Amino acid sequence: MKVNITKWSSVSTWHWDVNEECCGICRMQFDYCCVDCKVPGDDCPPVWGTCNHAFHMHCILKWLNSNQQQQCPMCRCEWQFKSDQK
Amino acid sequence: MIDIIKEYFRNSISTGFWKYFSDCKLEMLLNSKTTITNDSNQLMMIYQQFTVSIDYLYQVYIYFERNLEFLYQHLPNASLEFRYYLEKLQNLLMNSITLRSSTDTMTFRKILYMFFEKDFKSFIKLKEQVYKGDQEDEEEDEEDDLELSIQDIDLKESLFITLCRKLHRLNIINLSEDIFTEILYKKIFQYIEEKCQGNYEERFLDDTLQFCNNVLFKWLSMIILSGGQPQESDQLFKQWKTRFEFSIYENFAQQRVLELFSMIMHYPSSRPALEDLGVCFQKIPIRQVLIQHLSSVIGQRLLQPGAQTTDIISQYISTIQSLRIIDPSGSLIQTVGRPIKQYLAQREDTIRCIVSIFTDDTNELHKEFMNFRDNDTAELQEEESTILEYDHYLDDLDDQGNFEKSLQWVPLNNDNFNTNKKSSDDMFDNLVQIYESLDLFVNEYRSMLSERLLSAENHFDNALVEKEITNLELLKLRFGENSLHQCEIMVKDMTDSKRLNNLIHKEMGSVNKGVYETLILSELFWPSSALKDTLEPFKYPKEIIAQMGLFSKEYERVKAPRKLINRYDFGRVELELVMENGNTKEFTVSPIQASIISLFSSEGGDSESQVKLTLDQMCSALECKNKEQVRKKLQFWIANQVVKEVNGVYQLNVKDSSDTVSMAEVVDGDYVHGDSDEDTDSEDDVIIVEEQEEEKSVSEKEKEEKMRVIENFIIGMLTNFKVLTLDRIHNMLTMFNSEQYSSTQQELKQFLLKLINEEKIELNNTEYKIKN
Fold first, then answer.
1. Which of B348, B340, B285 is nearest to B313 (CA)?
2. What is the pLDDT of residues B488-506, one digit of tens each?
3. What is the SS3 assignment for B201?
4. Which DSSP symbol is given to B244?
5. Contact B644/B651 with Cβ under 8 angstroms?
6. What is the pLDDT of residue B389?
7. DSSP element (H, E) containing A2
8. Pairwise CB contact (< 8 Å): A13 & B573
9. How far apart are CA B470 and CA B490, in angstroms?
10. Boundary (domain end) residue, out of B68, B85, B118
11. CA distance B661 to chain A (A)
12. Are strands B516-521 and B562-578 parallel, antiparallel or unpaired?
């Protein structure tokens, strides 16, 4: 006997590949979006600093705009976007 | 002198009067009513004799009246006395006839009754003929036959009128009022019953009134208008007429109220009947009767355990619509609808039914629901403008025109003054109102939506998604955007998945496209119950793993930094089994079932070697630790006679693939089956149990989950206190756990029962304790 699979529809869920579960600023899960957004995914991605802390992009931008010092809110080291994050 | 006259009346007139009837079998009249109609000859005779005897009485009366008149002409100022004696004379005459013995009284009444009834019947017969003729050709009713009958009627009528005049003079009309009232009522009731009962599709009220105008009142007018002064009798006739009209409305309404329930069942075809009832409702006070009757019928016939929830809901909706026709102010609906609402709120599957009504496009209500967008805004505006108008009235009441208008304002009835009218205007609101909060609906809708989306035959079917989007848009109008935001994301996941699948398949190239596709969901936005994993992970067939790997890699590249997690519980696989003899069988199964059967697939063309596997072997091949899970899912293939089990070894069941089956094999096969029959049965049970669990509404599931949290507290409490009564458990839970615990004592009792069944606790009389 042979089994011919003609269609295999599966169901999967997507998740941000982040070590932490929640954004340190808005305390929302990364798989949710930040408080200002409605749609998760492309529109509200997480970003990493060189210190390896991750936040919603919108959250950290808001933070940086409202503060003179460009610091990571978690570890107070100077904030720089980590480029090339896998 | 009066005594002499009295004596004379009693002796000679009375005997003279009754002599006319000596030939007739008067006893027959007394005996029963049915014989009256049977013996028409006798009746004719009595009828004629009655006419003659009245003539006789009339002559006697006139003779005495003349003499009296003559007597009093010579006395001054005696007209009052004259009238008095005239009345006395009438009474004497009547008494002399009727008071001879009690049977005579009865007989006389019977004769009168018969007389009026007979005349009335022939009158109606003729009238109906003419009426019919009138309707058939209103223009040309000068045909010979018709004219003849009209002449006939005229003749009869004039005869009747003269007779009535005589009766008036003799004061017999006054005495027989109740008799012809009875006859007329009987006719009306009969007419209403015959014409209207069971027929809801035409309007009858106007018809009935017209019939009464044309026939009944004509006859009545002949009787009443024939005697006395025209003005006086005119007045009298008007009184009669209003009295009768009222009782027509009353009777009609009674008849209709009795049938209201079936009228509601036949809605909307019963609309005319309902409109009729609405007219009555405005005219006469039937409100209480209607509410009482309808409520009791609804209680008896609708709110029964045997009735299906969908039926109750649709009946509820027709009730609302019907009652709105009868009573536009909506107060009836509030009163009658309350018990239905309460009953529906008790049923567990109500929410589910309601939500499915609004999302099922074959349902009639769905159409109404779809129309909501168009007319609702208009309605709202209209309502606002009326409110403004009323404000306006208050401002300048002295304006005559407006004042008159404002007089038409109808106060809301007492039973509903705290509910606003607007609420009863919309079907959807009516249904949603059954429950206190919208959240229940939104949650139920969300879980049903997720079920529909996940179980769809083709996940990337445009029509499916479009339908859901329209539904969602409509629901958003009702519930507001925020509450349905999650549902929106769910639908968006579907469309996004489709796009991504297309994109990734394109990237991978047409060669590698394969058969694998996947939905990509935003987990947090789907109901947690819908995406709950129950299966342990297992291995897909090799080819699928390869395709899946490619897909995920591509996804992670396109959508970095994201990753995909496969959900093993979900999905569907279409496959065909190609048997050794070339037969093919097609199946649509779950991924785990597909993975299992793939293990039996023979590689290459070696048809001799049968794949034989034990459960352990299968588990290791699937990399699945849960043996029970594999065994359960294997039952599907055994039930479909694809796989069979021999002494713990599973192999393909080739029995049905060969055309000729030898006896031995059948026995063998049966034996093998007998071995596993129990398993199959239990598997069937499991399937049923699983299905039942799925049918539970979300709220139920949530409640159960909550209760599971409570379980730990209860166990803890029982360990500390050793024994506790239901009361105390309930009180302590409410006191210390008010956040998680919101159940009633009854619900708690149920839950404790469950725990007893699970052998975690036990019950001694009224005290619960931990089971050792």
1. B340
2. 888 888 888 888 888 888 8
3. coil
4. H
5. yes
6. 47
7. strand A2-16
8. no
9. 14
10. B118
11. 19
12. unpaired
Phi, psi of B304 (to 5 degrees): -115, 150
Q: Which residues make Cβ contacts (< 8 Å) with residue B126, sequence separation at least 6?
A: B149, B152, B153, B156
Helices (H) and strands (E) in chain B, counts: 33, 9
Range of the domain at B705: 698-770
CATH homologous superfamily for the domain A16-80:
Zinc/RING finger domain, C3HC4 (zinc finger) (3.30.40.10)
CA–CA separation, B158 and B161 (whole Å): 5
Q: Do B389 and B330 fall within a single domain?
A: yes
* CATH classification of the domain holding B716: 1.10.10.10
Measured between its terminal Cα atoms, the distance across chain A in Å is 44
Q: What is the DSSP letter of B197?
A: T
Question: What secondary structure does DSSP assign to B521-574, as a single string?
Answer: E-GGGS-TTTT---SPP-PPPHHHHHHHHHHHHHHHHHT-SEEEEEEEEEEEEE
The encoded tokens of residue B742 equal 């919101």
pLDDT of residue B149: 56
Nearest Cα neighbor of B153 from B132, B124, B181 is B124
Is the per-residue pLDDT at B398 higher than 80?
no
Every domain of chain A and the residues it spans: 16-80
- Residue located via tokens 């009962």: B197
Q: How does residue B655 score in pLDDT terms, banded at 50, 70 and 90? A: low
Judging contacts by C-beta atoms under 8 Å, the chain B residues touching residue A8 are 515-517, 540, 544, 547, 571, 573-574, 591, 594
Range of lowest pLDDT (B459-463, B465-469, B711-715) = B459-463
Closest partner CB to B561 (pick from A6, A10, A17)? A17
Mutate to test the interface with A, among B522, B542, B565 (most CBs of A within 10 A): B522
**Mean pLDDT along residues B705-718:** 81
ipTM for the assembly: 0.89
**If we measure between CA atoms, which residue out of B176, B51, B47 comes closest to residue B118?**
B47
Structure tokens at B39: 């013996």
Whether residue B285 is preceded by a cis peptide bond, meaning omega within 30 degrees of 0, is: no
On whether any CB of chain B is under 8 Å from the CB of A10, the answer is yes
What is the number of other CB atoms lying within 10 angstroms of the CB of residue B194? 9
Sign (positive or negative) of CA dihedral B196, B200, B201, B203: positive
Burial of A12 (0-12, 13-18, 19+ CB in 10 A): buried
Spatial neighbors of B45 by CB under 8 A, at least 6 apart, are: B23, B24
Element (H, E) at A46: strand A46-48
Check: CB of residue A5 under 8 Å from CB of residue B574. Answer: yes
B604: left (phi over 0), alpha (psi -120 to 50) or beta: left
Which runs of consecutive H residues, i.e. helices, occur in B197-270? 205-211, 217-225, 230-258, 260-265
CB A41 within 8 A of CB A14: yes
Indicate if B552 and B583 belong to the same structural domain. no
Provide the pLDDT confidence category of residue B578 given band limits of 50, 70 and 90. confident
- The tokens for B47 are 């009828």
- B559 touches A: beta carbon within 8 Å: yes
Tell whether the model's pLDDT for residue B419 goes beyond 50. no
For the CA atoms of chain B, what is the radius of gyration?
Answer: 43
Closest CA to B422 of B477, B461, B381, B362: B381
Return the structure tokens found at B433: 């109102």
**Mutation target among A12, A33, A86 for the B interface, most CBs of B within 10 A:** A12
Structural domains counted in chain B: 5
Contact B188, B251 (CB under 8 A): yes
Mean pLDDT of chain B: 71
Measured between CA atoms, how close is B610 to chain A, in angstroms?
9
DSSP letter string, B73-88: HTSTT-HHHHHHHHHH
Indicate if B314 and B411 belong to the same structural domain: yes
Task: Please give the structure tokens belonging to residue B488.
Answer: 């929106």
Q: Which of B55, B13, B50 is nearest to B162 (CA)?
A: B55
